[in-house]
């Protein structure tokens, strides 16, 4: 059995994104026509049932006792709830980012407590191409594979021999060696980071190895292994969730995260993600990791804590002559890597700056056959039974006919 790693995706009010004058790049993304498979509720009958369902869930998420009842569901009831929540995340224009975040957290918590996951995350028709590992990380290996006639990356988690699960896989677009257009790819990563921060999620391990390039040349953020919820209101209701965790890769980490003398871990923040973004841009324009001349992470931590940053490429470097690095971009990177987190730019400011100085993006007219996460999930739903998305269905699944498990 093959499973996609569980990374719960959804979107907020996309119309607001399109209308925001500061987000010209985000508005352009909407023209690509790949926004959630266009699975928005357009039929009156569907909307008439989904709207009350969203209202009912909003009330449930604010009621501690009902939330406990939700997390107590097991077996088929839990499975059907997980499938319902994931369908909502995929097809619904949610009324507010707060509801969107609450729905993601509820799905994650119910999955953790029940030991289940949305059925649409299970794949049975992924095949690997060859036996050679294309790349490897701290806890997983990447293989070349095929899905629906498309070449994909298959991320295989290294598991203990005692586990009963054969494979845990994440399906990703084909990973290319380098961006074809440095500045637009830098903007793509900033857009992805802006979206994560807008929905209350901190990536925590942004680096070049976690950026995938689609067939059209567009960059996408991947590998949310240590991502975390940053919304304190949600954390107050979800005792098993934690604030932004400490973690990541040293060469891309902000100085405040190191805290060598403190006993407590310093969490990642939106500001530390911005610092990491500046390091990714450095990779894009130099084809080198930050502090490539230093072999030991301890030496990197010492340098960064002392105020040093990745070395500026010499004027003779192809970074300037061939890959499009400019004084304006270098200054932007410096503004995003300042020692004080409060002194760094926000993702809104980064995008506004890039929009103001960006050349025409010729990639917009290119065809892109890469499957979005929602498209993959819709394919896997084919042939599965679906509950009606309605308040009546929700209430029947929440029927508390047996005692709550201890510890909830």
UniProtKB/TrEMBL annotation:
Region (Disordered): 355-375
SUPFAM superfamilies for the chain: Protein kinase-like (PK-like)
Biased composition regions of type Basic and acidic residues, renumbered to the chain: 355-366
Alphabetical list of SMART domains matching this protein: S_TKc (SM00220)
Molecular-function annotations in GO: ATP binding; protein serine/threonine kinase activity
Alphabetic keyword roster: ATP-binding, Nucleotide-binding
Pfam families: HTH_CHD1_Hrp3, Pkinase
Residue ranges constituting the Protein kinase domain according to the UniProt record: 3-356
Record has Nucleotide-binding as a keyword: yes
S-adenosyl-L-methionine among keywords: no
InterPro entries: CHD1-2/Hrp3_HTH (IPR056302), Kinase-like_dom_sf (IPR011009), Prot_kinase_dom (IPR000719), Ser/Thr_kinase_AS (IPR008271), Ser/Thr_Kinases-Pseudokinases (IPR051681)
Protein name as annotated: Protein kinase domain-containing protein
Organism of derivation: Lyophyllum shimeji (Hon-shimeji)
